[in-house]
Design goal:
This protein is mainly alpha-helical and 303 residues long. It folds into 3 domains: 91 residues; 142 residues, no CATH class; 58 residues, no CATH class. Helix content is 74%, strand content 2%. Helix 2 packs parallel to helix 7. The protein is globular, with a radius of gyration of 21 Å.
Length: 303
Amino acid sequence: MSQALGLAVLAGILSGGVFSAMLSGAPSLVLLAYFVQLPLLFAGFTMGLAGSLIATGAAVLLSSLMTGLLAAGLYVVLQAAPALLVVRQALLARTDGAGQVQWYPVGLLLAQLAAFAAGTIVVGFILLIGQPGGLEGVLQRFLTESWRELETIGMAPLPAPQLERLLYVLPALIATSWLMMVIVNAIIAQSLAVRLGWNRRPTPPMAQLELPWWLWPLIGVAAGCAVLGGESLGFAGRSALLVLIVPYAFLGLAVIHKFADRWAHRSLVLGAIYLGLVILGWPILAVLALGLVEDWAQLRRYL
């Protein structure tokens, strides 16, 4: 018990320490900042929700001491809350009539995270509706001022057309980056837990990923706002729409994993596919299209 408690506290110190160092501007920890949630998720996947809560408490205490209460509040909202949600949902299980353990569907959790990320854009739109230009206006002024600051340290000025294109996708880019951060940290944490033999649930096969039906009504509402909502509401709707379709890229990967079961060198080919997605970027659009088709056509039934 004392060993588990010490491990959870250590996880919290690692997470809170990296987060605080990131806010203080330590350049050596910029890349590590992407993995602030990893210790919390590892504590949860190995020790349960109690482990994540203990780690969160230690991280919040450390953040408060190092960077103040406001920073600790940001840590709770942006880092700890999604990690706790993932741990709680991922470890839910029930036993069916045949005595088999059924774990919480990963696809459902993925959809919930995407809906949460899209919901933050909607909340931002509502909170900033009284500002000049609304959400889009606030972001435009933020981008302009930020780039002026960068120009003072030698950065080349960003042409207006490029600034417009960046503004067009900025909310979706931020929300999607946050979503991917949670997913990547969860995958790494589960992999580490399995490798050490400390995992509380088995790793779900990627090929069996399923998404809930209720994502489509949300996509429909977001698309309607994007097309019919005018400049401000349309901006928010378009941004939410881009976030809500992200889970279908993972569904496309599920089809690829299912098809890969036929390959002799499955791991090698899948590794090459993922490497190509990371390096080239644009093939993810084909994977997304595959996922959208799969949700309607159920291609995996024929593989």
